[in-house]
Amino acid sequence: MFTIQVWSNDKYESVEHRAVVNSEKERFSIPYFFNPAHCTWVEPLEELINEHNPAKYKGYNWGKFFAARNRGNFKKLDVENIQISHFRI
């Protein structure tokens, strides 16, 4: 999840979900979705930033971000990682 990438200041990288079809074997998947409360402020955690590892993202409100993505119908819009690219410092 991209919020973890921001909270971890890039220690953990968000990846785009992709699935590969295997025509020889049945696939079973269970989706799990986690979203913070709409009032949650997402920014790199203080204990992970210092003078040698400055913050790589500016903070944002999760609810406003999610609402904007929802209004945009979750389109990729030719941006490498639309989820967090515009929050990079």
TrEMBL record:
Gene3D superfamilies: B-lactam Antibiotic, Isopenicillin N Synthase, Chain (2.60.120.330). It holds the Pfam family 2OG-FeII_Oxy. Transmembrane segments: none annotated. Residues 4-36 form the Isopenicillin N synthase-like Fe(2+) 2OG dioxygenase domain. This is Isopenicillin N synthase-like Fe(2+) 2OG dioxygenase domain-containing protein. It comes from Penstemon smallii.
